[in-house]
Amino acid sequence: MTHVYDLIIIGSGPAGLGAAIYAQRARLDTLVIEKAMVSGGQVLTTYEVDNYPGLPGIGGYDLGLKFREHADKLGAQFQEDQVLKVEDDGPDGTKRVVCVNGTYEAKALILATGAVHRKLGIPGEEEFGGMGVSYCATCDGAFFRNKVTAVIGGGDVAVEDAIFLARMCSKVYLIHRRDSLRAAKSLQESLMALENVEILWDSVADSILGDGKVERLVISNVKTGEKQELPVQGVFIAVGITPESSAFAGLVEMENGYIKAGEDGKTSAPGIFAAGDVRTKQLRQIITAAADGANAVTSAERYLTER
Ligand code: NAP
């Protein structure tokens, strides 16, 4: 007979690992299903995290490892697998998580699958993927030492990427579609202090050109219509995130792909909770993801007691 866990947590970013820590302390019989070989989620590709309390300036990879070590220390159980769909027998019923390598059952679920980078959808983006187009400066930046690169976007990730790349690239263009950045003010200050970064305001990327690899980025000014070609060898796209929720279509209510859930993590399906970047929320940060994990476990505990 299949083992029925009290709780299955899907995802092992800060929300999933936060939930795993709280679930262990609540002594719930819990399984964490993670698709990647290394836990941590998006935080792993963040060069430096300067807003997690108590750990100023910690490397994103190190923070991800610390979260996982903490969960391990408390005895959390992990299973590497890719979720295909979830079947729900209804209120108080068993929830079956159907994965590539097996099916896992639980009385309650926490969906903490996070989000992935959004694509821009311009000509050349697909063609030059891995040949100069990247979505991860900390992963690929080293290939562009002493080269000219462009970062597209104006949020935290775009500005963090531009700062990171400026350490190794001869020049970094930041292309932003408006005349002010969305990123945290402290990041903006660090960016503005860099001499080899040039911000091109009110500008959008039209296409990426080259012969086998990236050679030029065509941009246009949205106010004047003026076009220009930037000679760049790398284009880093940081235009936001898309929730990883397709496996839960029809299971829980969604809004623009995000799972509808409040701070308590409760979704439209009893016994199924959402935590972290995948849920509807105001602020998507590591600290709010970790907090979501704690809240979702508390809600799951109540559900399991009252069930
Ligand atoms: P984001 O905050 O949504 O910013 C996306 C940026 O891309 C915005 O500046 C947006 O422009 C621009 N953009 C979107 N679509 C575009 C398009 N089609 N063409 C051109 N530009 C486009 O996304 P993010 O920077 O990837 O960050 C994702 C989330 O992670 C955010 O909530 C962020 O705060 C969070 N984060 C947290 C930490 C941390 O906790 N330490 C670190 C990094 C990121 P507009 O400004 O005009 O909308």
Question: Can you tell me about this structure?
Answer:
InterPro entries: FAD/NAD-bd_sf, FAD/NAD-binding_dom, Ferredoxin-NADP_redctase_2, Pyr_nucl-diS_OxRdtase_2_AS, Thioredox_Rdtase. Its EC number is 1.8.1.9. Homodimer. GO terms for molecular function: thioredoxin-disulfide reductase (NADPH) activity. This protein has 6 helices and 19 strands. It has 307 residues and is of the alpha/beta class. Strands 1, 2, 3, 4, 5, 6 and 19 form a 7-stranded mixed beta sheet that branches. Helix 1 links the parallel strand 1 and strand 2. The longest helix has 21 residues. The chain is elongated, with a radius of gyration of 21 Å. NADP nicotinamide-adenine-dinucleotide phosphate binds next to helix 4. NADP nicotinamide-adenine-dinucleotide phosphate (NAP) binds next to helix 4.
Short description:
The protein is α/β, with parallel strands linked by helices and 307 residues long. The protein is built from 6 helices and 19 strands. The chain binds NADP nicotinamide-adenine-dinucleotide phosphate.
